[in-house]
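This part of the workshop introduces the protein records we will be handling. Backbone structure tokens are a discrete shorthand for how the chain folds in space. Once this layout is familiar, the rest of the handout is easier to follow. The record below serves as our worked example for the rest of this section.
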Amino acid sequence: MISYLDSKHLTTFRVLILFINSMNKIKTSRNVPLLLFFIPMVLFLVVGCSSEDSGDSENPNGNIGLTTKTVNTIRQKSAVSGGQLADGSSISIIAKGVVWSTTTNPTLSDNFTTNGSGSANYESELTGLNPLTTYYVRAYITTADGTSYGNEISFSTPEHFVFEGDVELTSQLTVDDFGSMGYSKIIGNLIIRESIPNNIDNLRSLECITVIESSPNLERGTIGVVNNTGLTSLEGLHNIVSIENYLIIFDNSSLTSLEGLEGITTVGKGADISENPLLVNMQGLTNLSSLGDNFIAVRSESLVNFEGLENLQTIGGGLIVEDLPSLENFQGLNNLTSVGDSFFIDVNAPFTFAGLDNLETVEGFLYISENESIQNFNGLASLNSVGGLWLLFNTELTSLDGLESLTHIGDVDNSGGVGESLIIQGNSKLSSLSGLSSLTTMDAGILISDNNILTSLDGLESLTSMASGTRTRSNLALSDHCGIRNILLLGSWYSASGNAYNPTQQDIIDGNCSL
């Protein structure tokens, strides 16, 4: 009998013998028969053997030859395995699949697939995985007797599942087909542009993509959603974190929101959000903190402000705002501190500069042209330096109030000081330059022209350094040039023509600077 006991039962049997021997040494006053002590132990042994003999908890179906298939098609968030039964197996299987976990010996208490019933071999897709993670997987089958598991295999998911090359998706079918492949990184461009009107209506199947990157020798890494008429949402792009070059959302006639771009934190070059007629703000770019190049917003009829860009602090290139007839203000850009190139504003809308409270520097021109409603510059209270300031043909501009912190205007054209980096021209209602009262240094020259009701140059008295000179011309009411006298005394030059009064440079130096 002993030969049929496993090691566990042998231990129990030895305990029983020791117990019997100890009983032989016991003397009781009532002379209790040893059998009464022996019976419970026999029952314990019999019951214990009966329970264990019912089967192995890991293999209640016996040796059925279940093998876990090698894991393949390992991607960032998915993989494929399966199960294989020994040839000729006739066991009645009611369920089968694979189980997996980040710890060894996974069971049905962990993640699992179901692949039907029957004894045919099968493949299983493991989904919902995390990148850069080690997993353990086993095949399983379930019969009326219980669940048995195959051998354990471990594998690790990569950081990315990479597609190398440009991707152009022109229909919903191509969007869904590419999305089903599960790529997380594209080394190339991703362009979504319908070839037939209304043929792309959603991007949900692209949710695996996280990075758009360029190749070493080619400037790629751009995502472009362009010329789509049926696309209403960018949901599906929400896992994209970084774009190495450009983000282009252009001419999507049904797009109402940028929501779906919340994951983007960096765009290496620039962003062009233009000609989307139903877009009212920039909600969706909530986590974007910097741009390496231009930000362009033009010809979007419904754009009211820039809400959604609250985390944007720097723009490496220019900020171009043009043909936005519904623009009210710049709310959303409240944390923007610097623009690395020119800031062009030509929107022809009743807007204010509210929202640009923290903008300190514009490395290029602050170029404000042909805005028929702007009256002043309130909202630019922190602006202290620009590469150039051109104020052209703003027909409702009455003052330069709001520019009181501006102390420096540079030489953005690198003209060596012979050019003009401050131009105030064609502002028919401008009556005063007093908003420039803190301006102290000019790295180039000044042109003040065709401002019909401007009467004086008061506001330029603080200038102490100028690389070039000042010209005034065709300012029909300009009769007081005294505001320029201090800089002339420091060696700058002056020219006046076509004004109400045109003193020479020497006249001004001598004090004959006004009528």
Residues 1-56 have pLDDT under 50 and may be disordered. The radius of gyration is 40 Å. The chain has four domains: 2-52, 67-156, 161-269, 360-515. The chain is about 10% helix and 25% strand.
